[in-house]
Inverse folding.
């Protein structure tokens, strides 16, 4: 079973600064990794798929890198609405059926 | 537009069962799998299981095996998740999420969430 470890647990930054969030997979089984943003009281929102592709409507300040076992989500210049919790997620297969794993999350808070 | 609309909040006693629905619209229901993801208060996301809306095949998270059942009704484009023998640590917001149209490796649409509270 894949384990995804996100770091740091909490990141304190100011608007306009650059944010770098990490996600490490316990085994490099796939180049596919997704990133989600979740705000309080809301469902997660897909930001990045296949490690580096932005989902529809996601601003260009969000970018992702990989593949391998170490993945990064970068927010080039933080806007006030970017302060939220971010999760990485990967899919693997179990007897030809999919199973999904989430990282434990990184909370991006205003400094 | 794609929408996943879930049933309302539930309060259950320990040992009871809960069944949450997720009604899909705006796309061909049988073309995408549905996963269920839960989130305990103040905690992260936990994948519970997946169901193929095409043929009903399922795969459940190991820790929930034997307590969870996922089904679909293609006539109404609705997915269901039933959890039995509820415990206090099952208190969570439960989400349904659709396999994405990009690569099926992630989830591009989510329901609004259903709060299930387990309390005596």
């Amino acid at each position: 079973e894949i384990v995804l470890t996100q770091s740091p647990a909490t990141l304190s930054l100011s608007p306009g600064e650059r944010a770098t969030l990490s996600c490490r997979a316990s085994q490099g089984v796939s180049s596919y990794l997704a990133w989600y943003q979740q705000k309080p009281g809301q469902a997660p929102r897909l930001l990045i798929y296949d490690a580096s592709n932005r989902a529809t409507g996601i601003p260009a300040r969000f970018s992702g890198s990989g593949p391998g076992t170490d993945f990064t989500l970068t927010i080039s210049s933080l806007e006030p609405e970017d302060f939220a919790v971010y999760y990485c997620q990967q899919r693997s297969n179990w007897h030809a059926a999919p199973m999904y794993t989430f990282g434990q999350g990184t909370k991006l808070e205003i400094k | 537009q794609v929408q996943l609309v879930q049933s309302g909040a539930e309060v259950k006693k320990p040992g009871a069962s809960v069944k949450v629905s997720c009604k899909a619209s705006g796309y061909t229901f049988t073309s995408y799998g549905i996963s269920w993801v839960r989130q305990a208060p103040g905690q992260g996301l936990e994948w519970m299981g997946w169901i193929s809306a095409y043929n009903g095949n399922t795969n459940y998270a190991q820790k929930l095996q034997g307590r969870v059942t996922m089904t679909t009704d293609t006539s109404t484009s609705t997915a269901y998740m039933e959890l039995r023998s509820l415990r206090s640590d099952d208190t969570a917001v439960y989400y349904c999420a659709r396999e994405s149209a990009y690569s099926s490796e992630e989830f591009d649409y989510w329901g609004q969430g259903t709060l299930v509270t387990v309390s005596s």
